[in-house]
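Recall the central idea of this unit: under ordinary conditions, the amino acid sequence of a chain determines the structure it adopts. In this exercise we apply that idea directly, starting from the sequence alone.
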Amino acid sequence: MKDYVIKDCKGCNAPLRIPTDIGGMLMCCPNCGHQFHTDFKLAAKEKRGEDANDLNPESPAQRPPSTFSVIV
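Accordingly, the structure predicted from this sequence is:
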C-alpha cells in the first residue's frame, strides 16, 4: 500500500504527492502558491497487544517525504 496519493494542483495542474496519514491540513503548492486543504481521513485502527501500554511514546512517528509546503 502506498503511503501517499498524487493529486493535481488546482492552480497550476502540477502533480503533488500528499501523505495519506495527514488530513484536514492547510497546504500550499510549492510551484504556484495555491492554498488548499487536504482530505480529512480517519486513521485505521492498529492491532495492539494484550497491554495497551506496550507502545513506546518516546519514539516519534516517521512521516514520508513530500512535495508540498505546510502553512503554519
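The first strand starts at residue 4 and ends at 8.
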